[in-house]
Each structure stands twice: as C-alpha cells, then as structure tokens.
Input
Amino acid sequence: MIGEISHFLSLSAVVIFCLILIFNFFFIFDKTHSNQLSLSLRMFNQACWLVFISFGMYVYLSINDDFSIAYIASHSNSQLPIFYKISSIWSAHEGSMFLWIVFLTVWSILFINSLHRNHPLKRITLLMLSLIILGFLLFLLLTSNPFERILPFGAIEGADINPVLQDPALAIHPPMLYLGYVGFVISFSFITAYLFHGNFELEWEKDIKNWSLVAWIFLTIGITLGSWWAYYELGWGGYWFWDPVENVALMPWLAATAFMHSLYASSKSNVLKTWTMFLGILIFALSLFGAFIVRSGIIDSVHSFANDPQRGLYLLIFSGLITLLALGIFAYRVPSLNVSRFVISGSKESYLSMNNILMITSIFSIFLGVTYPLIIEAVNGEKVSIGPPYYNTIFAPLILIASIFIMASLDSIWQRSKPFKSIVSSIIVPMILSLIFTYVVWHVTAVFSILSYIGIFSGSLILFSYLYRILSNFFYKKFINIGSAVAHIGFGLLFIAISFNSILSYEKNLNLAPGETILIDESIEEFSFDDIKVLKASNHDVISVEVSLLQDGNNIFLNPQKRKYATRGQITTESSIHASILKDTYLTIGDQLENGSWTFALKINYFIKWIWFSASLMVMGMLITIFKKKAI
Amino acid sequence: MNKPLRFLIVLLPIIIFSFFAKVLLVEEDEKFLKFNAKNLPSFELNDLDGVAVKSQSLDGIKLVNVWASWCITCLVEHPFLTKLSDENIQIVGLNYKDSSDKANAWLQKNGNPYIFSIYDPRGDLAFDLGVTGAPESFLLIDNQVIAHIQGEMTQRKWETIFYPLINKARNTK
Output
C-alpha cells in the first residue's frame, strides 16, 4: 500500500510540474510580475515536497524489507544493516535515478526560495527547473520505474546488495557526486533565464556564486571518494583509471573549475561574461551527457548500468533538447550583450581567459578520448581502445602551460596591464626553485620519465609561487586571497603527488607457502607468511592471511582477506594496507597454487594519500572562499 | 562573438547528439547476425592448468569467450557468463594476451565460469579466429564457428544470436 502511495505521489508531482509549464506557457513573454508567479511558486514547492515524501516512503519500504517491490527485492536483503538497506537504493539504476531527482528538487526548491520575492528572473528560472525535473521524473516513471511490484507474490528474501558496494565510502560516493552534478542545474537555469529575459542590466553573478561553489565542492568530494573507494575496496591498487565514467565526471569538473574562475573575473570586470555564461551552461550539459553515457550502456565500463537502448534514447533526446534550448538562447542573445570584447593583455583576466581556453581544450580532449572508439567503430567497424597514455601525454603539456599562467596571474591586476618587468621577480624565484626541486628529485630517484618530470615541475611552479607570495605577503603586507591560495597549493601538490606516485611506486608478485620468509629488497628485508585461516562470517566465508613485514626497520602486520558471499557466490578481495606518510604498503592475496603456496601481490604506492590530501586542500580553499565573504 | 562561432555553438551539439542517436539506433545485433560459418582453425595450445588442448577437443556445443585479466569489460560480462554456466552452457575461455599468473589470480578472485581456459599469450589462435580485442564470443557447434560477437555478452545478444542457434542445433540432434 505504501508503495502505491509513494508511486502516486511521484505521479502527482509529474502532473503539477506539467500544470506549472502549461499554465505559464501563455504568460512567458509577459514580463510584469503578476499573480501567476506566486501561484506557480506555491505549486512548485508542493510538487517538490511530493517528490521528497515519495522518496521518504521509498526509504521506509526499503528499511522494512518490502520485497514485493521488484527493485528492493533485487538489491536489498533482510540481513543487511539499516545503513546499507538505505544505501542499496542507489546501488543500481532505478533507485539512483530517483536519488538524482530528489537532489535536483532539493537544489531547485532551495534556490528558488532564496531568490528575492520579485526577482525578475524568478519565473523563468522556475520554469526551466520545472522542465528539467519533469523530464527526469518522466524518465524515471516511464523507462525505469522503481515502484514496480512482483505480482501476485513478492519475493520472500532479497537478492542482496553487491558486496563491493557494502562499504561506507560507496554509500556516500554516489550521493556526493550527484549533489555535485545536479547542483549546476542552478547556474544552468539561471543563466538561461537571464539570457531569455533580455534585461542585461541585471546583476546575476552574485546570485549563483555560492551555489556553484557548493556544487563544485560536492563534485570534488564525490570524485575523490570514488577514487579512494576504487583504491582500497576494489583492490585495483590505483587511484585513477581513465575509465569512461571517471572521464564523464571529470569533464563537468573541469568546466566547473573554469566557470568558477570566469565568474570571479566577470564579477571584477566587464570581460569574460560571455565565457562565464557559456561555461555555466556547459557544466550541466556535460552532466546530462554523463548521465546519458553511464545509463545508456553505450560505452562498456565497470560503472555502466544494464544496457537498455530505450533509456539511452530517451535521455539522449531529453538532454539534447535541454542543451540546445540553452545554447540556442545563448547564441541568439550573445550579440546584444553589452560586454567589452577586448581583454587587456598582461591583465589578470587575460591570464584567466588563457586558462579557460586550456580547460576547454582538456575537456575537448577527454571528450574525444571517450567518443573516439565509438566514432572509429561507426566509420569502419574496428574496435580501438584509448587508455592512460593518451590522456597522460595530452595533459602534461596543458598543465605545464596552465601552471605558467597561474604563476603569472598571481602578481597581475584587474583591467590593467602590468609590465612584464614588474612581475619578473615573482616569476624568477619560483621558476628557479622548481628547477632545483625537479633536478634534486631526478638526482635522488634516478628514474626518468619526461611526463612525470613535467608534472613535478608544473606542480612545484604553482606551489612555490603561492608559497613565495604568502611569504612576501607576510613581509610586505600585500593582499592575498587565502581561499584561492589554499586551493591552488592543493592543485600544485596534486601534480607533484601524481608524478611522484608514478615514478616511485612498484609492484611485486610473490609466491609463498605458509611459514616461509623471504627478502624482497633493501626496504623490505623480511616478508613472512605467518598464518592462514578460514573463518565464517554472517553472510560470507573468509580466507584470512597473516603476514608480517620488516620494512625500513619497523615490524608491520598485514591481514589481507578473500571473501566469498553466500547469496551471490561473488568473491571479493580485501586488500590490507599499511599507511605511512610517504607510502602505502598494499597487499592482496591471489590464489593457492598446486604445491600449497599462495600468490601475493605487493604494491608499494608512494604519495597516494597526498593525492587525496591535495583534493581536500582544494575543497578547503573553496570553503574558505565561501565563508570569507570579502574574498571575492 | 561572430556569426560563424554562434552558429557553431548550436550546430556542434546537434552533430554530437545525432551521432550518438545513430550509434544507439543501429541494431548492433544485425551486424553480428550476418556471419558466415567457417571451420575452427586447428591449433595446439595448453590450458591455464598446463593441460594440452587441441582443436578436436572442442566438439559439441561450446561457447568460446575471449577474455583477459586486463580487460575491464570482461569483468562486466562476468556475472552473465557465470549465469550461463549455471544453466549448463559449456563455456571455454580463451585467455588472450595475458600472463597465466594474472589470469589464474583473476579467475580465483572473480570465480570461474569456464570448463577450461585456453592459454593464448601471443594471440595465435585468437589471430586465426579473427579476434580484435577482448571480450569477444564465438559459438562452436561440432568444430564449426557459427557465430561471433565483439564486446560484452548481454542478455539481448544471447537471446537474439546465440540461443536460437543452440536451440536449432539441439533439435536437429
């Protein structure tokens, strides 16, 4: 019964959103603020609440094990802790789409009600948001209905959540990512509304600034959590795989990052406004594209949901129309925008626009990497695969150029050219320090890889220029934007960490019988296979191995496991990680050989935690920017 | 912003979206349905446990699945293959350009739906069969290759391409 009510509430929301659109259709060119706005707003709020209540009931059904609902029966289980019963909702396509819609309505309702009562853009923004929510609700109910019942008799027991998803990081990773993805619906709708409205005297930047910053933070946290989860739970031993689904998350992230910078510039001066609007539209368009790629199954990926052309086609048409609507209005209005077309070279905004171009280039390169195999296949039927080497070689030079612009922009000023001579000192110092640093690294590690050294050099260029800037700020009392400094230091550190990780890390495949001890290298003098046990847990069997290491003079105990889950028969590998500041010792067990010995994969991952630390620095920088109101 | 650029901003998404619509709408299965049966190339290789396998040992109805431990999509189709093997479909793995250590570890970790896996580290047999990558699947009936798909084995491909052929072969026997 509750399932039907929940279903009915979602359907009612569809009806109300339809009514809002039909009702307003007749008044869309009426720019006076009459009564229809307050009525539409009331309807909008009610429709959003219907979606929330519907989702709340669905959560209730999942907690109370209603296995007559097909989706819950195939993704949950009565033995699961409540936490995973809830997170099982977003462990597959239908439920995660529902969550996506809930977040869409959360952002929309908060934003719409935060706008001033008579804000001139309020009505069109509301219509845009209603249209988008309606499109996704129809997608959910028509092609991927989570409310479907198993009739006449429900299942007695659920099929269980996929064990690799029974993990706290994974329970939080999709919600964070979705909050980020859909958060940019605000900049998208608001900019479209602004362009449609046509009163270009209006100030719009400050209304969406903080909303976009918060969405950026969620997107960054979402991507970072995903990377972390793949590292320690999936047993892949790495942090980024250039998987198509990772790429479609990275594209909106890059667009969002460019957008933040552009927004900052256009609130300071009259330039780059066109850029800002374009990027604001692009972010959400890329999010929609990502949703299409992931949910149509058009590209094979570990993340892809069941392959269903019907869903793909719906999403493609819907996101295509929404994107074209926004870009069409943009292209139509751009000539009448009163913006200065000329960027003064050597000014701060000139460097920012250069980096905008670089970020668009990298988005385009990723886009090409994702679609190229499809294009080739469509052209001559061949299958090609594009992997890390493509992305690494493209990104290294882009990052080098970007880091030089970042460094130069630090000492430049808005709307005025600063002669090269006056910024020379603040370029020379970081440049020399970075060269020395890169040389020292090369000297100490004695490994050479051109791409990694470009990464180290670029990263340290950014890092040292900000550190130098902070120091000189301290002595000469110059202004520094703390939020931006922290975020950029995180960004610089990220490239240093990634490059160190790629040149220093190594991997050993071992083969040991219980009780044996071997020497691995000068760092790990002893590797002893102490014990192996077979244990029983509530819903799985465990093979648990105890290994002790004498690493750099310290004794370390590792306990990698393999688990076999009863309900799905799936086997998962639980890696065991010993973490120190510089490196992770990462051990997984393989299989038993005929002579009774076991195989092990031992990975020494350098600086891997620094990658996540850098990402959190970037998030911290953004948080400082939000809370320090004066900063922008 | 000048006119061509404004035009491009609208045109480019249209091109991109229509391209995807085309990719999505092309019936992938039709491409695979037009397959000319050929004889299984003769070979002599070992399986992953080191036991010799010859072309003659692949008699009866066998699904040959090309896989490798480095192949991400193989992981995606793996549960489906496991389901097929539970339904008594005999699946022979063709371990393609891989190392036996890694391949065995992969099977140990993810479960083994194959009756055995032919170890083809240089891709010799794969070359003769016309494999372009992993995963791919072939249907063998009495040493004849009668179907071939590239990419992930899905419920749909199974039902439209493989299952009818197997049914037909079983009925004629």
User: Anything to note?
Assistant: Chain B touches chain A through 39 residues (CB under 8 Å). The helical segments of chain B are 3-25, 28-33, 72-86, 100-110, 124-129, 155-172.
